Amino acid sequence: MIHLNLTSKKALEMIESSRGKTPDDGWIDHSKCVGYAASKIAKALNLDEDKAKALGYIHDIGKLIKFQNHVMEGYNYLKKLGYDDCYCNVCLTHSYLNNDVNCTQGNPVDIPFRTEFIKNHEYTIYEKIINLCDLMCMKKVVTLEKRLIDVISRRPQHDNIVYHVNEALKLKKYFDDLLGYNLYDLFPEIKKNL
Ligand SMILES: [Fe+2]
């Protein structure tokens, strides 16, 4: 079994070469934003910047295969290509907070493998960074609050919305505490993007 490393350069190539092959390429610019934001947070925490960037770039790669259920598609796609688990796993984990498939935007269908995986998986610091950045990135970095309101205003309400918003705010606080300052300070451009 091979466990290939995925550099940010390769991850960027993979998403850029997907342009024009999906119904809407917005996810590619969003993924580039997630990679950028994740690497900035990783640097501030003395973590591996390139790994964080690669994970951000690749987390939505399942959208290349199928928009619906992109989470499972991305996981299976990277597994098949032989990439290390950390890259496959982020495709699964990025949409769910608090080790709970119900803690997401929308009402997930029950896919037993996914439900169990999310419940039992110990989220790495990198996966937590991607969770947060996914919620802070449109095509540019915005505040978590802005992004959450954006999604809530566009999509029909779902049962777990309050639960998800509260867990998202907790995650932001987790990083504020780790950094010892407000994470938004890492993104001076954030004000202009509101
Ligand atoms: Fe995403």
Topology overview:
Blueprint: H1 8-16, H2 26-44, H3 49-58, H4 62-65, H5 70-80, H6 85-93, H7 112-120, H8 125-134, H9 144-154, H10 161-179
Fe (ii) ion binds at residues 30, 34, 59-60, 134.
Structure description:
Helix content is 57%, strand content 0%. The chain is an all-alpha fold. The protein has one domain: Hypothetical protein af1432 (Orthogonal Bundle), CATH 1.10.3210. Helix 5 (70-80) packs antiparallel against helix 6 (85-93). The chain is globular, with a radius of gyration of 16 Å. It starts with 7 loop residues before the first helix and ends in a 15-residue tail after the last helix. Residues 30, 34, 59-60, 134 line the site of fe (ii) ion.
**In the CATH hierarchy, what is the architecture at level 2?**
Orthogonal Bundle
Number of domains: 1
How does the major sheet shape up? none
Please give the radius of gyration in angstroms.
16 Å
Report the helical percentage.
Answer: 55-70%
Structural class: mainly alpha
Count of helix runs:
10
CATH class: Mainly Alpha
How many beta-strand segments?
0
pLDDT averaged residue by residue: 95
What string gives the helices and strands in order?
HHHHHHHHHH
CATH topology: Hypothetical protein af1432
Small molecules (ligands, ions, cofactors) in the structure: fe (ii) ion
Which shape, going by the Cα principal axes?
Answer: globular
Amino- and carboxy-terminal Cα gap: 46 Å
Classify the beta-strand content into a percent band.
under 5%
Low-pLDDT parts are: none
